[in-house]
Each structure stands twice: as structure tokens, then as C-alpha cells.
Write a structure and sequence with these properties.
Helices cover about 45% and strands about 25% of the residues. It is an alpha+beta fold. Helix 1 packs across helix 2.
């Protein structure tokens, strides 16, 4: 049996993004982290696909999100931090979302299990 594999997407909780904007930013994060995982850990990605591509969406304020991103990078986990282009609701460069994985659930949970669902 393969270890459980998942992707956790974190949407910034201290911004007043519309629902559509937040979903779009979460999608950007999910895709970029997936692309990183395809390069870094293709076997994990294959396992994730076989397991149904589990995704969890949570929320966190900017400072906490940045800390989690730094720890994920240090741990060698595929991850992505998204900055908005500033074309609609936000200033250019505003951090909006991030994602970790797909990766082993135990590794992702070590960084994110305390966060509340979106």
C-alpha cells in the first residue's frame, strides 16, 4: 500500500478577496505546485493520481503562510507561492495563496494540520 498522498492549498485569510478571485488564486497555486512535483517527485505524482488526487483547501494569514512556505522549501517539498498580477482586486505582487504537494500526507500535515478549512 502506498502512503497517502495529498496536496494542501492555502488561501490567504487576511485579504478581502471575492470568492471567484480566491478560487482562481488557489487554482494557480495548485497547478504550480503540481508542476514542481512533476519535476521533483514524479513517482509521488503517479501515486497521487492513482489515489484520486486528494486536495485540502485551508486558510491562513500572510505571516503564517510565508512561514509555512519557507519550511516547505527547506523540507524539499514541491510548493508554490502565488503573487497577484494586480489586474483586478489587488495590488500587483500581493501574496494570495500557496500550495504544497502532492506529497506524502505525513510531510504536508507536519506543516499544515493546524490550519482551518476554507
Amino acid at each position: 500500500m502506498l502512503d497517502e498522498i495529498k496536496q494542501v492549498i492555502i488561501v490567504r485569510s487576511d485579504l478581502q478577496m471575492g470568492k471567484g478571485k480566491a478560487v482562481a488564486q488557489a487554482c494557480h497555486a495548485a497547478i504550480r505546485a503540481f508542476e514542481a512535483a512533476c519535476e521533483l517527485t514524479p513517482r509521488i505524482v503517479s501515486g497521487w493520481k492513482m489515489q484520486g488526487e486528494k486536495k485540502i483547501v485551508v486558510k491562513a494569514p500572510l505571516a503564517e503562510m510565508q512561514g509555512i512556505f519557507s519550511r516547505a522549501k527547506r523540507a524539499g517539498l514541491p510548493c508554490a507561492l502565488i503573487q497577484d498580477a494586480g489586474l483586478t482586486q489587488l495590488e500587483p505582487g500581493t501574496v494570495t495563496a500557496m500550495a504544497i504537494g502532492p506529497a506524502k500526507s505525513s510531510e504536508v500535515d507536519a506543516l499544515t494540520k493546524h490550519l482551518k478549512l476554507l
